[in-house]
């Protein structure tokens, strides 16, 4: 299923209550579309916000990951094990909280 990006229309309709194209809505949209027991890379959410300038969005994505994890909306793993996004070093994966 293609992901509706910034040039193809808003994605916020999938996550009611979040304005379109916020770091939180991008993460929640992608993990929801991916489904249970599947994960995304945080960079995928940054690319949804801005395909050409996605790296500039990584700090905001990192802050959103910490917030969404702290509020229990997503899971964060590293090498397949639960991880704390505030202290994890290296690649992490984001999943839908079941």
Could you give a quick summary of the protein structure above?
It is built from 3 helices and 4 strands; from the N terminus they run H-E-H-H-E-E-E. It is of the alpha+beta class.
Features of this protein?
3 helices; 4-stranded antiparallel sheet; alpha+beta; 98 residues; 13% strand; disordered N terminus
Explained architecture:
This protein is α+β, with helices and mostly antiparallel strands and 98 residues long. The chain is 34% helix and 13% strand. It contains 3 helices and 4 strands; from the N terminus they run H-E-H-H-E-E-E. The chain has helices at 23-34, 42-49, 58-70; strands at residues 39-40, 74-78, 81-82, 93-96. A 4-stranded antiparallel sheet has the order 1-4-2-3. Strand 2 (74-78) and strand 3 form a beta hairpin. Helix 1 (23-34) packs across helix 2 (42-49). The longest helix is centred in the middle third of the chain and has 13 residues, at 58-70. The model is unreliable at 1-14 (pLDDT under 50).
What's the structural blueprint in terms of helices and strands?
Blueprint: H1 23-34, E1 39-40, H2 42-49, H3 58-70, E2 74-78, E3 81-82, E4 93-96
Antiparallel strand pairs: 1-4, 2-3, 2-4
């Amino acid at each position: 299923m293609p992901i509706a990006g910034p040039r193809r229309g808003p994605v916020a309709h999938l996550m009611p209550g979040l304005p379109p194209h916020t770091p939180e809505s991008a993460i929640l949209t992608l993990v929801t579309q991916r489904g249970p027991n599947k994960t995304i890379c945080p960079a995928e959410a940054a690319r949804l916000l801005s395909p050409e300038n996605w790296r500039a969005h990584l700090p905001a994505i990192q802050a959103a990951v910490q917030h969404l994890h702290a509020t229990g909306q997503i899971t964060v793993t590293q090498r397949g094990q639960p991880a704390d996004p505030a202290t994890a070093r290296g690649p992490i994966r984001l999943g839908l909280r079941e």
